[in-house]
Amino acid sequence: MQIQKAKRNAAKIKLSLAGASGSGKSFSSIMLAYGLCKDFNKICVIDTENHSASLYSHLGDFNVINLSAPFHPDKYIEAIKLAEEAGMEVIIIDNATHAWSGKGGCLELHEKETAKMKFPNSFTAWNMITPIYQRYIDAIINSSCHVICTLRSKTEYVMSERNGKQIPQKTGTAPMIRDGFDFEMSVAFDIDQQHKAFCTKDRTGLFQDKEPFIITPDTGRKILQWCSNNDSVSVDEISKRIGNVSSIKELLDLFQQFPQYREVLRPEFETRKRQIMINQNVQQQLAHQKINTNGTH
Questions:
Q1: Fewer C-beta neighbours within 10 Å, C or N terminus of the chain?
Q2: Which has the closest alpha carbon to 214: 240, 187, 193?
Q3: Could you give the CA distance from residue 108 to residue 133 in angstroms, rounded to a whole number?
């Protein structure tokens, strides 16, 4: 046991993508994974969707572990360990929902445990199932790899207008997983039927103020940069850099480069922004005066 300085050196992201069927979770997760490791050979998809990951084999030579029912959480744990031992860098669990609500998953295990009791007690039955579920969660968050979990969302239909007509539009609501799953993730995205992702949780600070967007390999590269960022760059050093920038573009680049310091240094960023704008206005006025007085002396 020892006290040491907190550093984020080569952190491994744990991320979830939730959406209704057809939202593009599988494709988005593969694009994200490629951005994280830049090598399809270092990606492994734990596929519980009837070999659906192989439909995207044209994207690159990623690896697949196919799981079939029953979806006991221990099967996922075994697959995660297999991928780690094979030297994978990114594990995609597609679909993580099955370990909870799929055939042989935690909800079914709970029903069977309750039925075995002489005096059935649903609450007490969870004492047997929760440790199984927790092993599954621990395997994800303690993995030596980046882990992307896709989650099915409950599907509802809303009426929307298209070409002057009201048509039903499929939409996803809450992810089909035990409450609190997103608490274990560093980043959580919801994906809509237009395949656009919006962030519902973000410990990185990279996406919290961003409009819905299409996930690309560049999304993964940004996360990788955050994971690899050297926290030895102190807040004082960033403060000095703010004072030295001479353009709005340089200031914005600095703001985006160090999301962990955005909030604490936001007043300094705003102050420097105003200073740069004032300097630009003064320079424009001086240039205008020089033009007006040219040749009069």
A1: N
A2: 193
A3: 12
Judge contact between 188 and 210, C-beta under 8 A: no
CA–chain centroid gap for 194, Å, is: 18
Between CA 183 and CA 97 the distance in angstroms is 16
pLDDT bin (cut points 50, 70, 90) of residue 159 is: low
CA pair distance 187, 183, nearest whole angstrom: 9
Q: For residue 43, what are the β-bridge partners?
A: 90
- Do residues 167 and 105 lie in contact, with contact meaning Cβ atoms separated by under 8 Å? no
Cα 109 from Cα 119, distance rounded (Å): 17
Quick: pLDDT tens for 13-36.
999 999 988 899 999 999 999 999
The CB-based long-range contact list for 173-176 (8 Å cut-off, 24+ gap) reads 175/16, 175/18, 175/97, 175/151, 176/97, 176/100, 176/101, 176/151, 176/152
Q: What is the pTM of this model?
A: 0.74
In terms of phi and psi (left: phi > 0; alpha: psi -120 to 50; beta: otherwise), the region of 126 is alpha
Q: Round to whole Å and give the CA distance between 97 and 67.
A: 13
Q: How far apart are the first and last CA of the chain?
A: 78
Structure tokens at 120: 């059935």
Higher pLDDT pick, 1 / 289: 1
Percent of the chain with pLDDT over 70: 86
Please say if the pLDDT value at position 158 is more than 70. no
Bridge-partner residues for 14, per DSSP?
147
Residue 71 makes CB contacts below 8 A (sequence gap 6+) with 48, 98, 99, 102, 103, 104, 105
**Domain spans in the chain, listed from the N-terminal domain onward:** 14-228, 235-293
Amino acid at 271: T
Name the architecture of domain 14-228.
Answer: 3-Layer(aba) Sandwich (3.40)
> Which of 25, 83, 82, 33 minimizes the C-alpha distance to 60?
33
Rounded Cα gap, residues 118 and 273, in angstroms: 70
Report CA 29 to chain centroid distance, whole Å. 9
